[in-house]
Write a structure and sequence with these properties.
- The protein is α+β, with helices and mostly antiparallel strands.
- The chain folds into 2 domains: 10-133, no CATH class; 137-225, no CATH class.
- It has one helix at 171-219, and strands spanning 10-15, 28-30, 33-37, 45-50, 54-58, 70-74, 79-81, 90-95, 98-102, 105-109, 118-123.
- Strands 5-11-8-6-7 form a 5-stranded antiparallel β-sheet, with no helix packed on it. Strands 1-4-3-2 form a 4-stranded antiparallel β-sheet, with no helix packed on it. It has a two-stranded antiparallel sheet with strand order 9-10.
- It is elongated, with a radius of gyration of 33 Å.
Length: 225
Amino acid sequence: MLNYVQPGKRLAIYNSSSTATLLAGVPVVVSGHIRIPIVNISPLSWGEASAEEVFNLPAKASDTWNDGDTLYWDPNNGWLTSNGETAGVVLAGASVPMSVSVAGQQTVTAGKAAGVTTANVELIDHNAEAIIPQATITAPAALTSSAPAAQTAEAAPAGGTGAAAGGWDTAAHRDAAIAAINANEADVATLITELTAVQADVAALRTTVAALRTALIAAGVIAGS
């Protein structure tokens, strides 16, 4: 392929600081992910950084997680955490097994227990779909209109004479029948009004869902069509 550039596991990153050096092995936040310099990168210089490989990094002692769990980097504290809703965290990758010493013997552990202060993480592929912390996605606003109230239909005029319901043989019976018809019409008008409000709610929900889909595509959570 004439347009092929490189495998992508390691990428060039630029140190835009004029004073600070990016240290090898210390995560650098790049657009919501982390990359880890392979060598020290001097101020205002380019250097190579890993985008996908496995690293052992400081971890929040009180957190616990299992093999394969999504991990985040907390740049404010300089550690991995399993809490994606912590303010300021960015996606790091997935937990992978690590070797630990137990009673002087090396063994492998799949997850992280409380008190452990380092952990292995496989950096997320920057070309794969990102797992975005729930707190960064805005849920659709709750709709305020209520569903249509239950309607009780009035009895239709039965016709007939005498005291029969809806009878038209006397002025009183006629007026009662007309009142029943008018009540039915009022109920229909109320139902139409409420159905119109529901229709507006559905339109608002469609707009909100479309906006949410756009945000998810922009964040890389789902693929655009």
